[in-house]
Write a structure and sequence with these properties.
By secondary structure, this protein is of the alpha/beta class. The chain contains 8 helices and 15 strands. The longest helix is centred in the N-terminal third of the chain and has 17 residues, at 3-19.
Length: 309
C-alpha cells in the first residue's frame, strides 16, 4: 500500500468512527441494527389498524401474533451477535413503520435521510433523523421533494457502488440527489429499472427481487429482474440462487445476511430456504405470516443495519 493509499484508508477510518455508523456492505457481519416493533408502529391501536386497506395490507393486522413474531426476530438478531435498538415511538408513525429499513440509508460518512415514495411514510424520515441525532450518528444529507427514495431500492454491490432501483418508490430525481451526495465520496450510483409489477399501490422494491448473501452470491427472483440488472450482476462476478417461484408471494427473495454465511429468512419459505442450505448457508428463520407477508416486508425490510463488519 502506498503512502497516499494508507492516508486515504486512515482518513476513512476516522470518518467512519466519527459518524457512529457505517454502510457500503449488505453482507458483512451485522453488529448493530435498528428495528421498529409492531407495538411502536401502533399495530395495537384500533385507529391505526383501521388503515390496513389503504396501506395495502392483506388483512387487518393481528397485533399479538405480529408482536410475538417480531420478538422472535429480535431474538435471532441478538443470537447472531447484533446489538438491537428500537426506533422511538411517535404519533406520526403508521403501520408501515415496522418496515424500518426504508426511511434512511447508512453510509460510511453518516446517515442519508430519505424521502419515501409512499406518502404516509414521509414523516418516518424525520424520526430516523431524530434517532441519528440522539445516537450521535452524523447526518450526511437529506433527499428532498420532488425526489422520492426508499432504501428497499438500494443495494451496495461493493464499497464504491450503490445500485438503486428506479420505480414507484424511488424516482429519477431521488437517484440524482443520491448521486450528488455520494459522488464526492467516491461512490458510483447506478440506476436499475424496475418492472411495473402489480402497479403503484404494491410495494415492489429492488430488494424484493434480489438479496445479496455474500460477496459473490445473490438470491434472485430472476424472471422479474431487468435484463440489464442481471447482466450487471454477472459482470460483477455474482452467482445466482433462484427462489422457488411458488414462494414469491411469501417474500422468499427477502433474506437478511448476518455475515459469515449466516442468513435470516422467513420460516414459511421452506423450499427456498432448503436451496440456500444446500448451497452452504446457515439459514436461521422466524415465522413471518403476520409480521412479514401481511404488510409485504421481509427480514431486510424489518431491519435498518447501523453497523456491519
Amino acid at each position: 500500500m502506498s503512502a497516499g493509499e494508507k492516508s486515504e484508508v486512515e482518513a476513512l477510518a476516522t470518518t467512519v468512527a466519527e459518524s457512529r455508523s457505517n454502510g457500503h456492505s449488505m453482507v458483512d457481519t451485522l453488529r448493530r441494527v435498528m428495528v421498529c416493533s409492531p407495538r411502536t408502529a401502533g399495530w395495537n391501536k384500533p385507529e391505526y389498524a383501521a388503515q390496513w386497506r389503504e396501506l395495502g395490507f392483506l388483512h387487518k393486522p393481528n397485533f399479538n401474533e405480529a408482536q410475538a413474531q417480531h420478538e422472535l426476530l429480535w431474538r435471532e438478531l441478538e443470537s447472531a451477535g447484533a446489538e438491537v435498538v428500537e426506533l422511538p415511538p411517535a404519533d406520526c408513525l403508521t403501520l408501515d413503520a415496522v418496515y424500518v429499513h426504508d426511511a434512511s440509508l447508512t453510509t460510511d460518512f453518516g446517515l442519508v435521510v430519505l424521502r419515501p415514495g409512499k406518502t404516509n411514510r414521509v414523516a418516518e424520515s424525520e424520526q430516523h433523523c431524530g434517532f441519528g441525532d440522539l445516537s450521535g450518528i452524523r447526518i450526511l444529507g437529506k433527499i428532498i421533494a420532488p425526489a422520492t427514495a426508499e432504501a428497499g431500492d438500494m443495494v451496495w454491490l461493493n464499497a464504491k457502488t450503490l445500485l438503486v432501483g428506479n420505480g414507484f418508490r424511488t424516482n429519477s430525481t431521488g437517484i440524482a440527489q443520491l448521486r450528488d451526495l455520494l459522488r464526492p465520496k467516491g461512490v458510483e450510483v447506478i440506476p436499475a429499472p424496475l418492472p411495473y409489477g402489480h402497479g403503484p399501490s404494491a410495494c415492489l422494491h429492488l430488494m424484493s427481487l434480489m438479496s445479496l448473501l455474500d460477496e459473490h452470491t445473490a438470491l434472485v427472483d430472476l424472471p422479474w429482474l431487468a435484463v440489464e440488472t442481471v447482466e450487471l450482476l454477472k459482470t460483477r462476478g455474482y452467482k445466482f440462487i433462484e427462489i422457488d417461484c411458488a414462494e414469491r408471494d411469501t417474500l422468499a427473495c427477502n433474506v437478511l445476511a448476518l455475515g459469515g454465511k449466516r442468513l435470516l429468512a422467513i420460516k414459511e419459505n421452506a423450499k427456498t430456504n432448503a436451496k440456500l442450505r444446500a448451497a452452504g448457508f446457515d439459514v436461521r428463520n422466524f415465522p413471518g405470516s403476520e409480521l412479514c407477508v401481511n404488510g409485504g416486508g421481509g427480514p431486510t425490510c424489518l431491519t435498518r443495519p447501523l453497523w456491519r463488519g
